[in-house]
Design brief:
The chain has 399 residues and is α/β, with parallel strands linked by helices. The chain has helices spanning 16-25, 61-66, 70-79, 83-97, 102-113, 134-142, 164-171, 182-191, 208-214, 244-256, 272-281, 298-303, 318-325, 355-367, 369-380, 390-398, and strands at 3-9, 33-39, 55-56, 120-124, 126-129, 143-146, 149-153, 176-179, 199-201, 230-235, 261-266, 288-292, 306-309, 330-333, 349-351. The strands form 3 sheets. Strands 3-2-1-5-7-8-9 form a 7-stranded parallel beta sheet, sandwiched between helices. Strands 12-11-10-13-14-15 form a 6-stranded parallel beta sheet, with helices on both faces. Strand 13 (306-309), helix 13 and strand 14 (330-333) form a beta-alpha-beta unit.
């Protein structure tokens, strides 16, 4: 009899955690495991990559109604005689309307949104909340029967500004807390000392064979180059964490120094309008491009000259691993987990987290052909696939 697993995720719209889950699901041994997937949204660029063997669980009608705009949602609940959910929908809106830490809002909003979600009655061998916050809370509160419950943290916990007391109540009810790097594990152990023995490290699964196959471009030139521009690529959600305002400022410095730069970002998010305004203010419309979401970013990585990560903080960046697999010269800011992925001057450059340092580092890569050659040669000689990481998951759920 197959062992039944449940994975929980807010959506598969975009992001490293979402891509990591899709990759993991495609590595599952479906001869041994039966897999259910619960998503709060059934839309997103990675939906098409869900394996056919995975059963996507339906959302309850109460949640569909909860997801409507406030007035429509409240009116709908009242017409159905459900004043309790109408109240919770109103409180959810109020808590998310005012300025404040987004992560804390998600924490404190859970008690309201959870009222619209039904309990899952199936018996699971393991229930896995694959992203911090809501996914974990759902596994603890809404999964009635599971032999073991696992939470997943994809980020440097301290950088999110969350209420650790809120999470501690949930972490106490988990059997394991998985994170994506040794540094992230150290941070969790320090923040939650009583849960230290539950912390496990499983690296994001990346497959060189799949990435190299998908990197074959659909067009001869995905960037539509007009000449001898230097192509820089960054990938990530347009969010404070990714620090793309630093990228714009660095691009401006490089253009002012006389370099022909085309800096591209693959991603979407809440900072899009602000970044577009910043690009316009710096007269970089021809030098800095927001490309939006791409379900297959690999031709863009392959055709870039330099991959740049300007993040304020990361867990373990999948995009960096992908750029390494495609042997791109990489430059990253010195966020807390940068050294988990990049050996400075060996397989990439780590620079201070400011625009001048980033511009100087890129200029160094442009001018020093011997450095670029050394970095790409070293990357080509690395064993970068992490497909075997799924064995760690099997080990955890079968202990």
């Amino acid at each position: 009899m197959k062992k039944k697993l449940l994975f929980v995720m807010p959506s598969l719209s975009a992001g490293g955690g979402e891509k990591s889950l899709v990759t993991l699901l495609n590595r599952i041994d479906f001869k041994v495991y039966e897999v259910d997937l619960f998503l709060l949204s059934h839309e997103g660029i990675f939906m098409e990559f869900i394996p056919s063997e995975v059963r996507l669980l339906p959302l309850p009608e109460t949640y569909h109604l909860f997801s409507l705009p406030l007035l429509h949602s409240v009116k709908g609940f009242l017409l159905r005689g459900n004043g309790g959910l109408a109240f919770n929908r109103l409180m959810f809106s109020i808590k998310n309307r005012f300025p404040g830490n987004i992560a804390k809002k998600e924490q404190y909003s859970w008690k309201h949104i959870s009222k619209s979600l039904e309990h899952l009655q199936d018996k699971y061998y393991a229930a896995i909340g694959f992203l911090e916050k809501t996914s974990t809370y759902f596994c603890v509160d809404k999964v009635v029967a599971a032999d073991r419950k696992i939470g997943w943290v994809h980020i440097d916990y301290d950088q999110l500004g969350m209420d650790s007391r809120f999470d501690n109540d949930y972490f106490e009810k988990l059997d394991h807390i998985v994170t994506v790097s040794e540094e992230c594990a150290h941070i969790l152990e320090k923040r939650f000392p009583k849960q230290k023995n539950k912390v496990e490290v499983i690296y994001n699964i990346v497959s060189p064979s799949i990435i190299n196959k998908m990197a074959t471009p659909d067009a001869l030139d995905v960037y539509e180059k007009q000449g001898d521009e230097i192509i820089i690529l960054s990938i990530g959600r347009l969010h404070y964490q990714k620090n793309f305002d630093l990228a714009v400022e660095s691009c401006k410095l490089l253009v002012d120094r006389g370099y022909k730069i085309q800096w591209n970002i693959i991603g979407d998010g809440e900072e899009k309008e602000r970044l577009m305004k910043l690009i316009e203010e710096n007269h970089l419309e021809n030098n800095f491009k927001l490309l939006g979401l791409k379900s297959n970013p690999y031709p863009y990585i392959k055709q870039a000259d330099i991959y740049a990560q300007t993040s304020r903080f990361e867990g373990k960046s999948i995009a960096i691993d992908e750029a390494k697999i495609l042997n791109k010269p990489i430059i990253v800011t010195n966020f807390s987990t940068a050294k988990d992925q990049v050996n400075d001057e060996i397989d990439g450059l780590i620079v201070d987290m400011d625009a001048i340092a980033m511009a100087d580092g890129i200029e160094k890569l442009i001018k020093d052909s011997h450095l670029r050659k050394r970095l790409t040669t070293n990357l080509a000689n690395l064993q970068l696939g992490t497909e075997e990481e799924i064995e760690k998951l099997y080990d955890i759920i079968n202990r």
